[in-house]
């Protein structure tokens, strides 16, 4: 129970089988009180119903946690809502110790010439600017509490390597590498660590959609696409949500107290740098 007495916020954790749900479950299993935060409902064309965590699903996920949990609807593109999420953690559960910027969109995938300014902004606004808002809001509360903290962003293999049809996604995730490098310098004095976890393709969540897209582009079945993917990965399989959750739990633990500003691959050896 290494997180007993800790309160953790996980953005984008309101979709079943997503990485956020797995992260929340892992932290909850080890004693953390978790806030299942997600957008809660479609707000615009960039957040279609089929791709987002709705309030009913958020409540089901919170109820399935082994420990105490609450839900909070928050669009990470709005800094006021993100600050309200941080305030909710303290008001409802007494503190804020762990913040995981997991919310992301990865379903706008198009050839370079077809990407509109709206497409570009939609991805950057959630994946990069949303994480920055989260980092700011979490750091403000953690600094005021005066007992350190842990901030983890779920970046991607796309934070280290390029992917076709994913210029905005790749740029947003590369941006997170710079964000933690800068923020860790300022937050070190407060005992707050800031790191990225960089998973390769996970076959659930938005990775499922990306796998279907790339299989269609290559004119092969998803099964064949996944077999090809597994053959490139030294450990012989695509990632699981639990692989990412384990890495987050480690970075949030006392054992990782001296690790900050890092972007840690969880890729079965596929991503070497
Ligand atoms: N699945 C993969 O293969 C993979 C690999 C590497 C990194 N990632 C990253 O992991 C994170 C989680 O993705 P996932 O695969 O679990 O997909 P997912 O679609 O299940 O999760 C993304 C979550 O973000 C939420 N979200 C979207 N826009 C939001 C907004 N404006 N405000 C608040 N929440 C919003 C969605 O509702 C959803 O619950 C993302 O940041 C993604 O880029 C995923």
UniProtKB/TrEMBL annotation:
Entry protein name: SDR family oxidoreductase
PROSITE patterns (alphabetical): ADH_SHORT
PANTHER family per UniProt: DEHYDROGENASES, SHORT CHAIN, ESTRADIOL 17-BETA-DEHYDROGENASE 8-RELATED
Entry's family note: Belongs to the short-chain dehydrogenases/reductases (SDR) family.
Assigned keywords, A-Z: Oxidoreductase
